[in-house]
Automatic annotation (TrEMBL):
Name of the protein described by the UniProt record: Oleate hydratase
Entries under Gene3D superfamilies matching the protein: 3.30.9.80, FAD/NAD(P)-binding domain
Top-level taxon in the UniProt lineage: Eukaryota
Organism: Fusarium oxysporum (Fusarium vascular wilt)
Alphabetical list of Pfam families matching this protein: MCRA (PF06100)
A GO BP annotation: fatty acid metabolic process
InterPro entries documented for this protein: FAD/NAD-bd_sf (IPR036188), Oleate_hydratase (IPR010354)
Any GO molecular function: oleate hydratase activity
Length: 179
């Protein structure tokens, strides 16, 4: 099962030279296969016989990804509010990312705590933004657990790995199976 999302559905595709919003399911599959690196000769048959694509337009789902700035969304409990709050994806809370269930839950918790005077904070968001371990783990996952720089000549690769040995960076790269 694959979910394909097109942010700019009015733009022509790279393989199918027409807007995604005008494409059939088979044409969307062709475009997706092209972007996955499937050999171009195999794309028509795979799209026609190897997959079933049901196009669905969800025009408001894009609102999550539109450019925005602070103040675009209302505060959860606006200044002066005593008996109402804004909950969910389109209210403003700090250090969180929309499009998650947790975001909605945190906004509800924050509103209840503020409106009822409960002196308690909502659960912290995992601080992955600047955690190099999260980035290294993502890199490992994206490479299906394969080491980095396997394309380098062995002599250069050994030199670089040797330079990292005994360092914290080297230890982390071993831990995340990158070297």
């Amino acid at each position: 099962v694959v979910w394909v999302y097109g942010l700019l559905v009015e733009k022509n595709g790279d393989y199918v030279k027409k807007p995604m919003q005008d494409c059939t399911g088979e044409e969307i599959t062709q475009e997706w296969l092209y972007h996955m690196g499937v050999p171009e000769n195999d794309i028509p048959v795979l799209a026609a016989e190897g997959a079933k694509c049901v196009p669905v337009m969800m025009p408001y789902v894009t609102s999550f990804f539109m450019p925005r700035k602070a103040g675009d969304r209302p505060d959860i409990v606006p200044a002066g509010a005593e008996n109402f709050a804004f909950l969910g994806q389109f209210s403003e809370t700090t250090r969180d990312t929309i499009f998650t269930t947790e975001y909605s839950v945190r906004t509800a918790m924050e509103s209840v705590y503020k409106l009822t005077g409960v002196d308690r904070g909502v659960p912290e968001v995992f601080g992955s933004t600047y955690d190099v371990r999260v980035l290294l783990d993502a890199m490992c996952q994206l490479r299906d657990g394969k080491e980095l720089a396997t394309w380098l000549p062995e002599r250069i690769r050994r030199f670089l790995v040797n330079k990292l040995e005994g360092s914290q960076i080297g230890q982390l790269m071993h831990e995340y199976h990158l070297i």
